[in-house]
Amino acid sequence: MDRFLLVARLRRSTAVLASPLLERGLLAVTTAALTGGGVAHFLDADGIAELFWGLGTVAAVIPAVGWVLVALRRGHAGVDLIAVLALGGTLAVGEYLAGVLIALMLATGRTLEGAAQRRASHDLHALLAHAPRSARRRTGDGVVRVPLSEITAGDALVVGPGEVVPVDGRVESTEAVLDESVLTGEPLQVTRQRGEGARSGAVNAGGAFDLRATAIEQDSTYAGIVRLAQQAGAESAPVVRLADRYAAWFLPLALATAALAWLVSGSAVRAVAVLVVATPCPLLLAAPVAVVSGLSRASRRGVVVRDGGALENLGRARTLLLDKTGTLTVGRPCVLDVVAAPGHVPAEVLRVAASLDQLSPHVLAQAIVDAARTRRLELSAPTEVTEEPGRGASGVVEGHRVFIGRDDPTRARPNWAKAVGNRALLDGASVAWLTVDERLTGAVLLRDALRRDAPHAVRRLRSAGIERLVMLTGDRAATAQEVAAVLGLDGVRAELGPADKVAAVRGEREHAVTVMVGDGVNDAPALAAADIGVAMGARGTTASSEAADIVLTTDRVDRLADAVVIAQRSRRIAVQSALGGMLLSLGAMAAAALGLIQPAAGALLQEGIDVAVILNALRALRADHAGPGVLAPATEALIHRFATEHEDLQDVLQAVRDAADRLSGVPGPTALASVEEAHRLLTERLLPHEYAEEHQLYPALAPALGGPESTVTMSRAHTEIGRLSRRIATHLQLARTNGGLAPEQLDDLRSCLYGLNTVLRLHFTQEEESYFSLAP
Question: Less CB within 10 Å around the terminal CB: N or C of the chain?
Fold first, then answer.
């Protein structure tokens, strides 16, 4: 029993020593002692001055000894050991001023380091908050709610709309519409048919359905995720302080020098003087100051780093693992394209679909409405709206019976609709079909789009020294491969569950310091298992943020590249300051060993060294001028303006593509009218936009990009867009002269339209990645 009491007392003592209150209290006491002694000395009250200084020194000895004992118990002798020996030496030889100066430096270093490296706890409150506590079980007397612990395999359960699936089970109803984003990170809802499995943690996005339990609470998917996060977090070893790594050789050198000075001279004062100037204040102060400065600078860029150890580690990282959905992609469906049946136009298809979807809470419906509003389409008020979960919505729009959602797979589709289905398969997109008065009228393709800043972030991460970039995702392999190819990643692993991601992280950690970036609950175990976990905290779940070492508070993945650069620079400055300060201390140690420096003078000299290294460490607060230039507010405003115009011009690009498609059929009056409409949109909207970019945006960007030559490639694209537009205009003039399109015009005109559509899409993408991503 005594043994257990002793262990408990030791743990309580360790907690007290690690308390920030003790560090701040010691700093206040030593500052007051030094100041009080200084005032007394100025008033010629030397006895009182010595008393103040002595008390300040004694006040530091007790906690300093405790810190050393804690470090020794963990298996390493830190920089505090020299400080303790120096404090004891000054007390032994009566050099109280030197002692209180060392005490002040020790207290300052501990306070700064505590602020830089005190980790926030990785509690899993959000994971546990999402976990269901009870379930509705079907019995002979009806449906009753029971605690989750009472559920056994084989129980018949009912999952209501919006409820979390309580345990793993098998769908007993016709179908169940589930939001599994909390498990897979994928934003699109899935439909599970009768007999298919449903995992705990998924949310019922449709109507109530019956579920046959196949596992108890502890054996279900969501409980496994919680356990994985706990186990992975427990594996993470504490980061060894940068200062302690250098102390490994500085400490024995200082002790040997002090012992040699005492042995040769026979003077204990010389040994104390050596210890005083050897007090590793450059380590105690410079490294924490540089790290804290780096943390401050990172926070200004929207990057919250939980402790100094994470910042140090990030500066050494060489492998980066990224989740796809919500990290490299926007994390929600966006309209990829709108296709209209012959005789209809895409803008009208989108307008009608969005008019009906205004009242739907479905994630795809919201994406369609957002796209219509972005294009400034005037929506109508629907009536008689009903929604069938998992299939779609129907209602009356402007007197017509309209349906938007999943098409009946048994219905015979026309050729244009078959082409839409093929394209959806190739692009990894979902399709919302529009029928008006029972006739298939159009389709809206939706896909989780790539983040605009993702390519820019990948390039910057590589330039910052990240050697290996790999995507880990629960999405399908084909979709993941396409995203990885666009970004130029080194590898991709798809269709992974939380356990698979943890295994992948552990495998990469064996070869290099590894960073994992994610945003969902399903990413929390992998974030905790990595050397550095990074959470997309702007829209990501609280669980992923709490399991991470770094949280990006802005919804931009390129801020991680900023954090890597800041971490590398802060670590470099910390090393420079520590090594420079130690070299100066070595020179002072040699002088003290020869009797040229007394303890008090040595303490003052050490203070001068401290000031020099601290000023150098504070350089970490300043921006690295080698990085990208800072944009003027007017330039940022221009970027936002033209980015908005890109969204508005999507219907122009679609009109060009639609005109080219119509020329592929029978090139009659309808095809010619489509070309005329596309040309009108080009002339009235797109070409003025390109002209304004060339003469307003590009000159404003040139200073930040290194000069006007940086935009030459984009300017060349403007020239090609203008050339193709003029060529289309010439074809239209010939058609008016000849009374219609001549057969010999068709190939070249079709080539111009398809080519213009391709050039515009590529040009828009390049501008968005290279220029628009620069603005916050």
Answer: N
Model pTM score: 0.64
pLDDT digits (tens, 9 = 90+) for 507-520: 999 999 999 988 76
Question: Confidence band (pLDDT; 50, 70, 90) for 120?
Answer: very low
Chain mean position to CA 72: 37
pLDDT tens for each residue of 750-764: 899 999 999 998 899
Do residues 37 and 50 make contact, with C-beta atoms less than 8 angstroms apart?
A: yes
- Nearest of 65, 59, 53 to residue 99 by alpha carbon: 53
Token duo for residue 42:
């100025």
Task: Say whether 388 sits in a helix, a strand or coil.
Answer: strand
Active site residues per annotation: 323
Specify whether the CB–CB gap between 90 and 599 falls below 8 A: yes
Could you give the CA distance from residue 397 to residue 436 in angstroms, rounded to a whole number? 9
Q: How far apart are CA 762 and CA 380, in angstroms?
A: 34
| Distance from C-alpha of 763 to C-alpha of 774, rounded to nearest angstrom | 16
Other beta carbons within 10 Å of 594: 14
Three-state SS at 157: strand
Q: How many angstroms separate the CA atoms of 102 and 583, rounded?
A: 19
Measure the CA–CA gap between 79 and 481, rounded to whole angstroms. Answer: 49
pLDDT value at position 119? Answer: 38
Tokens found for residue 415: 């050729």
- For 143, 648, 674, the CA distances from 156, given in Å and listed in that order, are 10, 51, 58
Tokens linked to 91: 């007390």
Name residues whose C-beta falls within 8 Å of residue 475's C-beta, 6 or more positions apart in sequence. 184, 185, 186, 324, 325, 494, 495
